[in-house]
């Protein structure tokens, strides 16, 4: 492999793994149960949603 090919490979590995790590950090700081359409809206507990599903 040429030098430029190795540099490009390393660059794109850093970009891809950096995006992966950034996504994991972001998800750990903003878990699914506190973000999204409903977020921390009242009446969105598991029990309330299960009761609505049974109706």
UniProtKB/TrEMBL annotation:
InterPro entries: MaAIMP_sms (IPR031596)
Keyword Iron attached: no
Disordered: region residues: 31-55
Segments crossing the lipid bilayer: 6-27
Keywords carried by this UniProt record: Membrane, Transmembrane, Transmembrane helix
Superkingdom assignment: Bacteria
Amino-acid biosynthesis keyword on record: no
Organism: Corynebacterium freneyi
NCBIfam families the UniProt entry points to: MetS_like_NSS, NSS_import_MetS
Biased composition (Acidic residues): 45-55
Name of the protein in question: Methionine/alanine import NSS transporter subunit MetS
């Amino acid at each position: 492999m040429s030098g430029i090919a190795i540099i490009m490979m390393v660059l794109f590995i850093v970009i891809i793994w950096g995006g992966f790590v950034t996504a994991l950090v972001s998800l750990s700081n903003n878990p699914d149960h506190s973000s999204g359409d409903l977020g921390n809206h009242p009446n969105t507990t598991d029990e309330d949603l299960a009761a609505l599903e049974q109706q």
